[in-house]
Amino acid sequence: MNTFEHISQETEQARVSFLATPMLLSAANGKIDTKLYTTYLEQTYHHVKHTCPLLAASMAQCTKQDHTLRQALIEYIDEEKNHEEWILNDISHIDPTANLDQIRGEDGGTAVEAMIAYMYYLVEHKSPYAMLGMIFVLEGTSTDLATMAANSISNSLGIKNNKGFTYLRSHGAVDIEHIEFYQNLVNKITDTSTIELIIKSASSIYKLWSNVFIEVVQFWENSK
């Protein structure tokens, strides 16, 4: 069993629990209205805007021995930059009255802040390799769910074009090279403590990300 397979096996239960999050099940069944979708996009914006800063924070913690990780993080930054603007564009397409400047000036809910703060803590006080746990969850889960969710939600809302779904569809495309890149990266890691930290990071992000979806529903219900 290689390192990627080991990480996948050790985080499978956390993944199963995450996939049972009620909002994810509702999205899969097309039971999401416009307000719930835009509320989700707003909270997603607030964690995605931290992606590149988190990657940069991880790079800052790399030593000369972490050259391979540093190069990978540079590639991830190049791929992920400005994705938060895609989300704002999606919000404006779904809700033309949305105040994008106000959204930019906000911090997101407690669940988002907790997830992001946890990752900053891990990469700055434990190891930059902890970032690979978050990447494992966000990249892998997006590939599995994003396209399905985009199709289901757009059908539910009666939207026939892709406007409003750029972020979901772009992250749902199965990028074989990207997945292989990640697998090749982690399969070079043999240090047991580093692998265990990646597993811990991934398992925790599954739980913290689930909390984000739970809070999205709470925000939506309070807005009624």
Any chance you could write out the topology, listing elements then pairs?
Blueprint: H1 3-10, H2 12-19, H3 22-28, H4 34-48, H5 51-60, H6 67-80, H7 83-94, H8 100-105, H9 110-125, H10 131-157, H11 166-172, H12 176-186, H13 192-222
Helix pairs in contact: 1-13, 2-13, 4-7, 4-9, 4-13, 5-6, 9-13, 10-11, 10-13
Mean pLDDT across every amino acid position: 90
Order of helices and strands: HHHHHHHHHHHHH
Q: Which outline best applies?
A: globular
- Kindly state the percentage of residues in helix: over 70%
Structural class: mainly alpha
Number of strands: 0
Largest pleated sheet? none
Strand content: under 5%
Number of helices: 13
Report Rg.
Answer: 17 Å
Question: Which stretches are poorly predicted, pLDDT < 50 over at least 5 residues?
Answer: none
Distance from first to last alpha carbon: 50 Å
Notes on the structure:
- The protein is mostly helical.
- It is 77% helix and 0% strand.
- The protein is built from 13 helices and no strands.
- The radius of gyration is 17 Å and the shape is globular.
Offer a few descriptive terms:
224 residues, mainly alpha, 13 helices, 77% helix, 0% strand
What is the compact description of this entry?
This protein is mainly α and 224 residues long. It has helices at 3-10, 12-19, 22-28, 34-48, 51-60, 67-80, 83-94, 100-105, 110-125, 131-157, 166-172, 176-186, 192-222.
